[in-house]
Amino acid sequence: AQTVTQSQPEMSVQEAETVTLSCTYDTSESDYYLFWYKQPPSRQMILVIRQEAYKQQNATENRFSVNFQKAAKSFSLKISDSQLGDAAMYFCAYEEGNAGNMLTFGGGTRLMVKP
Amino acid sequence: GAGVSQSPRYKVAKRGQDVALRCDPISGHVSLFWYQQALGQGPEFLTYFQNEAQLDKSGLPSDRFFAERPEGSVSTLKIQRTQQEDSAVYLCASSLDPGTSGRDFYEQYFGPGTRLTVT
After folding, report:
1. How, if at all, do strands A3-5 and B75-79 pair?
2. To pair with A53 at 20 to 30 A between CA atoms, which of A71, A115, B7, B91?
3. For residue A37, how many C-alpha atoms fall within 13 Å in the half-sphere facing its CB?
4. Do strands A24-26 and B10-13 pair parallel, antiparallel, or not at all (unpaired)?
5. Per residue in B15-34, pLDDT tens?
């Protein structure tokens, strides 16, 4: 079974600074997707960024980028120029490569942004 | 456009009561997922529908949990004889048709969840 591990229960960053959230996963599959989701207090899960395992290039979405190390099974999220609105729970998630598969989530990291 | 909606947003049940949680997916979305999120943890998969067919129910924790999607749109998650360990947020997500060949990415869109508290 696939597992996703987030070793940082809480992280704190100063507004406008950069922070990196860590995620490791375990799988024997070669075709899969990795995601970072944001969950604010409203509980609505919002997709932040995704990475296809077959792509070597790291995904980037505006201030959000990932460092995908396939051999090490590591998938970290970097948030640049942190904003107060970035404060939330962040979940790393894994999906097998066949369409229609469920997501396997990590335990989450609570990000606090200090003004 | 309208997103995934869930009702009720909050539900308090006494131990032993039955509850029904509703999910309205985005119109046209074929796939529907239910997840359970215990306090302070990540969501865990419960079950998956493609249209009205329940293709995977491997995550349902016990036979007290039952899900249906009879017309391929709205889904209901029913929990019979609720226990305190059932207290959690129940999230619903929907996505477009997974397709029959190749692999296209279909994002799962989540609803706001139903927080169930069993007293």
Report:
1. unpaired
2. B91
3. 25
4. unpaired
5. 999 999 999 999 999 999 99
- φ, ψ dihedrals at A85, nearest 5°: -70, -10
Q: Given the structure tokens 């004889």, which residue do they identify?
A: B81
Q: Judge: B42–A43 Cβ closer than 8 Å, yes or no.
A: no
d(CA B77, CA B67): 4
Q: Which of B91, B98, B105 shows the shortest C-beta gap to A45?
A: B91
Residue located via tokens 């969950």:
A39
Mutate to test the interface with B, among A30, A102, A104 (most CBs of B within 10 A): A102
Question: If you search the block for the tokens 């609720």, which residue do you land on?
Answer: B82
Strands B19-24 and B75-79: antiparallel
